[in-house]
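User: I'll paste a sequence; please echo it back and then give the predicted structure.

Assistant: Echoing your sequence first, then the prediction.
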Amino acid sequence: MEQFTDPQKKDIKVLLKFAAVFCGARHGNRSEFPMKEDLAPLFRERINLCPECRALMEYALSKRRRCPLDPKPSCKHCHVQCYSRDFRAKMAEVMAFSGKRMILRGRLDYLWHYFF
């Protein structure tokens, strides 16, 4: 698959925002996350991540691009667990931390993503 589909782009946008919130609150030593050409138009602001979060997002993007399910369910409801155990635990930590933080900041659109 050469480019991301529209649903994939939406998922990736949410995922990178969650990672940016998590990394901003927990880590230092952040630098700009390079966007691929097909994702760059989605973001008005730059995404800054530490090396650990950058590796997690690169792994997540590669797995999201190769997902065979259509339509893709959220990972917590998926019967195909494509993430390794370590990455799955780290992603759950990022999503739980950032989801609560984003909802408390008034981003009620993420409330739907958090619960479903």
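The chain has one domain: 6-115. The helical segments are 6-26, 51-65, 85-104, 109-115.
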